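Progress report, Aim 2. The chain analyzed during this reporting quarter is listed below.
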Amino acid sequence: MPRPASDKRERLTQAAISLARTHGLEATTLAAIATEAGVAQGSVYYYFKTKADIAQAVADGVAESLASARTGLGPEPTDALVGFLGAYVDDSAAICAHGSLLATASAGTGSDRAHREAIDWLAARFEELGFAAEAAHARAVHLLAGIEGGAALARALDDPSPLEREATHLGRWVANASA
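Predicted structure tokens for the chain:
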């Protein structure tokens, strides 16, 4: 049974994200996106006319995917922050192979949207724990820098242990957080 045409842009965007993460944005071609998404190559041009269009779709698609994933982390701020860290550990095999999804959102795209949205979300959780806005923002940046650093080391060393150790350390830090 053919897929509905209405989901074509979504399929193309997901294909572009997958290819950008696994092969890099520069190696992500319109033909490869079409093949990955299972659509005719000519129809890709309707949605993505340039490499910049692909880059923007990747950046926006990752930001939207990560935002959606954060909504399922729970209403309690400590649980949500620990869940955020756990999502990195759960993705450690892909991170070792290809880097973090957040890194994919900015690599070659020039977009900081996904990073800024993650920091804003993290800061809001720290504010819910009673931290003033400036302190909450500083904690959010610290947490994101730590977990992304662990992810970068896991990728570079092809070893999930730096990521796992950083997630554990940051999880204890979050659990002991009090304003």
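The chain is about 75% helix and 0% strand. The mean pLDDT is 89. These observations will guide the mutagenesis work planned for the next reporting period.
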